[in-house]
Specification:
Radius of gyration: 21 Å
Shape: globular
CATH superfamily of the largest domain: NAD(P)-binding Rossmann-like Domain
Helix content: 40-55%
Number of strands: 7
Strand content: 5-15%
Largest sheet: 7 strands, parallel
Strand order of the largest sheet: 3-2-1-4-5-6-7
CATH topology of the largest domain: Rossmann fold
């Protein structure tokens, strides 16, 4: 019997039982086991916003998670909250990912605590807004250290462990600006595009080691970063914060700002065993805002 015929017959049986008032479950066919139980993940900038949503999503699927951020107090509170919600082991390591020595400490601490690393989610706050005439040379260097070099240094730290463990997942959070540059975000447009070039090359080089590398680009997701940008735009245009938010959503076909949990769902999937044939890709989660074909 073909899989298609089996599926049709199963669905007919389920429909009959449903019409008779029976509750129907198909644990072997309808539940997608993501294979994340006891996997070990490191998530950058994870005390709040997208990073926190991702860390929570991974923990809910059974992964053990190391979270990091510069604010140790907020980081500890987040770790406690994720433990309470999921019952999983969460390690909090205060870290400024733009500092190579702190990145090294983060990775070593995670490996010492958990025994290795299977999943790395590269994430860092975005550089400050500004146009060419607003920025000094140091601003460009700071942006490169924050977004590009942090990604490179974290990858350098985890790849040896992933090789020892027979594979892994590296997922880089960038921005839709890598596909469609955003006005007044010169630094982000520059530094995050560098991450894409690095990741595409790395995906090819690490494929024989079964280490998959992908990029995910958030559009307008309701985080502190979006609130900050809306505040700046409101001040520049002489409008209210709410009006600035409305203008930011005007080009989104779905007509609304995204939720961090919606974004995290894709990251969790890409980190899972179910995403075993996806590498070297750059996917946006933006409600259809980006108009480019690729």
């Amino acid at each position: 019997m073909t899989l298609y015929r089996h599926s049709v017959i199963l669905n007919l049986v389920k429909l009959i039982l449903f019409l008779k008032g029976c509750r129907v479950t198909s644990p072997h066919l309808n539940i997608m086991n993501l294979g994340l139980t006891d996997k070990i993940a490191v998530v950058g900038a994870s005390s709040k916003g997208l990073g926190r949503a991702i860390a929570l999503g991974l923990a809910q699927e059974g992964a053990k998670v190391t979270i990091c951020a510069r604010d140790s107090e907020t980081l500890k509170a987040t770790a406690d909250n994720i433990r309470k919600q999921t019952g999983t082991d969460v390690l909090a390591v205060p870290t400024d990912v733009s500092q190579p020595d702190q990145v090294e400490n983060l990775i070593n601490t995670a490996i010492d605590h958990f025994g290795g690393i299977d999943i790395l989610v590269n994430n860092a706050g975005g550089p400050r807004a500004g146009r060419f005439d607003d920025l000094a040379a140091q601003d460009y260097q700071d942006a490169v250290h924050l977004n590009l070099m942090s990604t490179i240094n974290l990858c350098r730290g985890v790849v040896p462990s992933m090789r020892e463990r027979g594979g892994g997942r590296i997922i880089n959070l960038t921005s839709v600006s890598v596909k469609q540059p955003v006005d007044n975000l010169m630094l982000s447009n520059m530094a995050r595009t560098g991450v894409i070039g690095f990741a595409k090359t790395l995906a090819t080089e690490l494929a024989p080691d079964k280490i998959l590398v992908n990029n995910v680009c958030p559009g307008i997701i309701f985080t502190d970063r979006i609130q900050q940008l809306a505040t700046v735009r409101a001040e520049e245009a002489g409008i209210t914060f709410d009006e600035a938010l409305e203008k930011m959503t005007a080009d989104i076909p779905l007509g609304r700002i995204g939720d961090p949990d919606e974004f995290a769902t894709l990251i969790v999937f890409l980190a899972s065993e179910r995403a075993s044939y996806i590498t070297g890709t750059t996917i946006q989660v933006d409600g259809g805002m980006v108009k480019s074909l690729l």
